From TrEMBL:
Source species of the chain: Glycine soja
Keyword rRNA-binding: no
SUPFAM superfamilies assigned: Malate synthase G
Record carries keyword Acyltransferase: yes
Alphabetized UniProt keyword annotations: Acyltransferase, Glyoxylate bypass, Glyoxysome, Peroxisome, Transferase, Tricarboxylic acid cycle
GO process terms (BP): glyoxylate cycle; tricarboxylic acid cycle
Domain Malate synthase N-terminal: 24-86
Family, per entry: Belongs to the malate synthase family.
Protein name per Swiss-Prot or TrEMBL: Malate synthase
Residue ranges annotated for the Malate synthase C-terminal domain, each copy included: 434-555
Entry's Gene Ontology cellular component terms: glyoxysome
Length: 570
């Protein structure tokens, strides 16, 4: 990796012999592969380019509005319900009826679009599989394009894999989970596809290519006339939902399918969005199939939104659970809002995963998952997320036992009591302590996650927990905030203040610990040192980077060009 003048890497440039057949104004800088060419057809690229051209200014405006909102919060404002849209919150209206194919979403498995995991997830016994181009995926060209190939084969029902090392063949069962696809957030570019000289918007590439190739088969085999289905991440305002709604309408028109065929669940995973839940559902009324509590990004967003509010610092990451008042209020209000509007209120992800070779620790982890799921189903959630196939029976049992034969609780658990939740409830500062171990864990996890991400894995097990982009973000922004405000670490009796010297020492010691834990060979071969450099810069920079992955993305872009080196984009 070459490091350019500004400290960013210059995209590696490799010479190519074969080109994709592209429509006018489209340039593919990603590696040529005959399999990818079946996805990157001229017509599919034209569909993506048309979306890009129609919506790019709307997207730019929405991102500009995010910057404006950030400025306001940094000057001391708090997120709030918008008086201008009070009528949407107060009037009675409902979303389009839930498609029968996805009425029952008790347990949804999530995972990256890796071929084996796609097959395993679809076979897992979960009601839904959310195939992830987002938190769980490192968005390099190979991962993205292979992911598209995998999803096309999955919807066609032809996906299979021969694991030669284990002499095991993977193929689909007769009964599979229903597929939802989560494209990237609005902020991420796709630097390998240039449209009119600019990088494409990542999520339009993810959505567009998948939709183009699979809508027809999906509606026949999975959606019973509806679909395809999507999860939409990281939105901050209903204007962003409106763009998605318009994208869906355009896609339906091009495909010649009924308006309202495409359905999406929006993740409420930013603090500003919790004040916009009615408005988001309203914008997507014909296309909505609920909201989901994306708890990890939500915690990240709480820190980010209050980056300039030293009176609102979070305690250690492990102490910010769903029973903290602000988190409970968010989940309760989400349930109330969804059920009032006739759609699913989905729960979120417990971070525990099965622990191999330690039955006692495994049972303790499972018990934490059960407790979390019991809280969700009793609160009125209609379903939940599982990170691993091994957790599905326990999650399913809890939802089945507490919901009887019902597919969901939309009409039965209205949660009118949550109607009185206020802005203060949603913003209440969490209780807890800030410790040296918290700082160390953030550092150790942040660096290891980023090292995995730079190497192509967007979701990894660390210390018996699932870590993905959302959980790693919490580690990063919390370190940044503690450093920025020189917080005093309590609980250890030493009263040490977090400053650059202390952080440098922690980084050095945690790097040594990582090397010991993973072994010197893996440590030297892996991306740990590069990850440490990026993570340290992000934690100590004078202004907080908006996203960990936006900066790190520059390190995984690899351009291919016929003429030799092309100009770097960053
Ligand atoms: C905050 C959020 O956004 S949450 C949503 C995003 N995060 C996710 O989607 C997490 C997805 N989960 C995962 O990626 C993985 O479970 C990890 C990384 C956490 C753990 O992975 P591992 O330690 O490799 O799991 P493990 O070795 O126990 O896997 C056992 C088997 O289950 C499979 N498996 C594990 N998780 C999944 C999954 N989520 N989907 C499908 N298959 C899975 C593995 O492929 C493996 O299959 P095999 O026996 O055929 O080889
Ligand atoms: O996407 C889910 C989250 O918790 O973040
Ligand atoms: Mg998320």
């Amino acid at each position: 990796m070459d490091i350019g003048t500004y400290g960013y890497p210059t995209p590696a440039v490799k010479k190519i012999e074969s080109y994709y057949d592209v429509p006018e104004g489209v340039d593919i800088r990603g590696r040529y592969d005959a399999e990818f060419a079946k996805i990157l057809t001229k017509d599919a690229l034209k569909f993506v380019a048309d979306l890009q051209r129609e919506f790019r200014n709307h997207i730019k405006y929405a991102l500009e509005c995010r910057r404006e909102a950030k400025k306001k919060y940094n000057e001391g404002a708090l997120p709030e319900f918008d008086p201008a849209t009070r009528y949407i919150r107060e009037q009675e209206w409902v979303c389009a009826p839930v498609p029968p194919a996805v009425a029952d979403r008790k347990v949804e498995i999530t995972g990256p679009v890796d071929r084996k995991m796609v097959i395993n997830a679809l076979n897992s016994g979960a009601k839904v599989f959310m195939a992830d181009f987002e938190d769980a995926l490192s968005p390099g060209w190979e991962n993205l394009m292979r992911g598209q190939v995998n999803l096309k084969d999955a919807v066609a029902g032809t996906i299979s894999l021969h694991d030669k090392a284990r002499n095991r063949v993977y193929k689909l069962n007769d009964q599979t989970a229903k597929l939802f696809v989560r494209p990237r957030g609005w902020h991420l570019p796709e630097a390998h596809i240039l449209i009119d000289g600019e990088p494409a918007t990542g999520c339009l590439v993810d959505f567009g290519l998948y939709f183009y190739h699979s809508y027809s088969a999906f509606r026949r085999t999975q959606g019973a006339g509806f679909g395809p289905f999507f999860y939409l991440p990281k939105m901050e305002h209903s204007r962003e939902a409106k763009i998605w709604n318009n994208v869906f309408e355009k896609a339906e028109k091009v495909a010649g399918i009924e308006r309202g065929s495409i359905r999406a669940t929006v993740l409420i995973e930013t603090l500003p969005a919790v004040f916009q839940m009615n408005e988001i559902l309203y914008e997507l009324k014909e296309h909505s199939v609920g909201l989901n509590c994306g708890r990890w990004d939500y915690i990240f967003s709480y820190v980010k939104t209050f980056q300039a509010h030293p009176d609102r610092l979070l305690p250690d990451r492990v102490q910010v659970g769903m029973t903290q008042h602000f988190m409970k209020s968010y989940s309760d209000l989400l349930i109330r809002t969804c059920h009032r509007r006739g759609v699913h209120a989905m729960g979120g992800m417990a971070a525990q995963i099965p622990i191999k070779d330690d039955p006692v620790a495994n049972e303790a982890a499972l018990e934490l998952v059960r407790k979390d799921k019991l809280r969700e189903v009793k609160a009125g959630h209609d379903g939940t997320w599982a990170a691993h196939p091994g957790l599905i029976p326990a999650c399913m049992e809890i939802f089945n036992n507490n919901m009887g034969n019902a597919s969901n609780q939309i009409d039965t658990v209205k949660r009118e009591d949550a109607a009185n939740l206020t802005e203060q409830d949603l913003l209440q500062i969490p209780i807890g302590t800030r410790t040296m171990e918290g700082l160390r864990l953030n550092t150790r996890v942040g660096i290891q996650y980023l090292a995995a991400w730079l190497s192509g894995s967007g979701c990894v097990p660390l210390y018996n927990l699932m870590e993905d982009a959302a959980t790693a973000e919490i580690s990063r922004v919390q370190n940044w905030q503690w450093l920025k405000y020189g917080v005093e670490l309590d609980e250890d009796g030493l009263g040490e203040k977090v400053n650059k010297d202390l952080f440098d020492r922690v980084v050095e010691e945690e790097m040594a610990r990582i090397e010991k834990e993973v072994g010197t060979v893996k440590f030297e071969k892996g991306m740990y040192k590069a990850a440490c450099k990026i993570f340290t810069r992000q934690c100590t920079s004078p202004t907080l980077d908006d996203f960990l992955t936006l900066d790190a993305y520059n390190y995984i872009v690899v351009h291919h060009a016929k003429e030799g080196p092309v100009k770097a984009l960053n």
